Amino acid sequence: MPARRLPRQQLSFDDLGTPLAEATLVVVDLETTGTNPTEDAITEIGAVKVRGGEVLGEFRTFVDPQRPIPAYIASLTGISDAMVTGAPHIATVLPMFLDFVGDASLVAHNARFDIGFLTAHAARHHIPWPSPQVLDTLALARTVYRRDEVRDHRLSTLAAHVGASVPPDHRALSDARATVDVLHAMIARLGPQGATTLEDLASAHRRASPVQLRKKHLAATVPPVPGVYEFLDAQGQVLYVGTSRNLRSRVRTYFTAAETRRRVLDMLPRAESIRTIECTTATEAAVRELRIIGATKPPSNRRGLTPEKALWLRLGPGREGLRAARLAKDESDGSAQIGPLGSRHDVEPLKALLTDAVMGRAAAFETSSRGDRPVDQGHRSRIRRALLEDPSEVLEHAAGRMRGHVTAGHYEDAERIRQLTLTYLKAARRASRLRALAAIPLLIAARPVTEGVIGRRGWELLAVRHGRFSGTALVPARTDPLAAARSLALTGSGEAELAAPLCQGYHQEAEILASWLEGEGMRTVLVEGAWAVPARARFEAEHLTEHFSRTAAAAEA
Questions:
Q1: Residue 60 near residue 86, CB atoms below 8 Å
Q2: What is the pLDDT of residue 3?
């Protein structure tokens, strides 16, 4: 399908939110057996990923509804029972679709229907829903196209009105493609009216609340710089903390209809002032935000409140087995840990997966039933290797179990094993990065800056001590960054006194720094100790996903 591009507009420094030309959108459409998301099933998913008016990819699959398709639905969509027989179940399809979506926003025509089905099925099969921003082209069309211009706001009517390249025909991908053209036409219509960001588009059919309009003056003096902002009450207590590359732009969005988060809207009546902290770089701002949240525990923030309560899966020293732990410890005594885990509910399934892979199903069951049963040294060394160095034994075991389930047609069981193994890989990967950072007394690295706060090309320098932020600087192009690096090396020495194994208590900060260090163009400038970049390939989830896909395809053939 040929690439379609939107008219691009020059964005000013004060534009709010994410520019539309930079926003990634996934336009999705479903076909189903009925209209009730709790009782009916999905039969087909079609989606188109776009950014800046260009099509980046498409997703389409039939879904086995595991029930007969009503005759009137089959007549409307052309999808028969024979067409979906043998198709994967929604428990298998939905994670694949979410992988396709990634961090994009979702778009649908009558989004309540499509997103309602997706979220209901995600909840039914215990699949985490990422809660992406959702745009509804039906609601948007009611604002853009008045009844004297179109007779109604059905997708078929709008597609014909804008001259869509693909007419909708009650098939998922065709309808998604038609929705893309309708969306682009509405963006072109709204652009001259000032809708240049994703947030503008999301709120085009809404109005700001009275309290938002009343408190809007609080943003008047916020500077257009990167940094941290704090909403304060009348007593100067911190209510909410956030960060942005452009404080003025971000703070202004809190007083527009684009802001719909209940905890934020409930906070605004109590807000009496906004305090800002200017930062040299976005990385510094992100770290300062985490530290302020950890210290002040703002009532309207949810992320970063209790980093000290991270949960790990730990193999104790001696003959101790696997158990949950709230405190990461030094591993020189033969112990090992992975994490932090996303949920305490992951502990027992992960213990079972590892012991099953190393000791066999019977021994794993006995270990589980008898609690922290001692583990012999041979099994301990293999479990420790799987935690610290090489997951291949666990991957091969998981692949074998998935192969058996797929062959037997038990796709939900196979998907459950796949998700559990991805959880293990993620926890091992996180621990690997944290372990490497925690071991370095000082690391100063540089990355190229092509645009942004310095207004020209140059270098962004970052100093890290034992996984803690120690300092940052911006150096113009054609300037040797070594002098700035040496200055950074003389600051932040106090951070080393707060160091902990695997960055215990500040792992979120360390992961921000690790992501920066893994960015494109990173160069090491100064280092104390041995900086060993974690072997990313060994803990990449794509390896297992690809293996599972090949296994499923072979079994179905």
A1: no
A2: 37
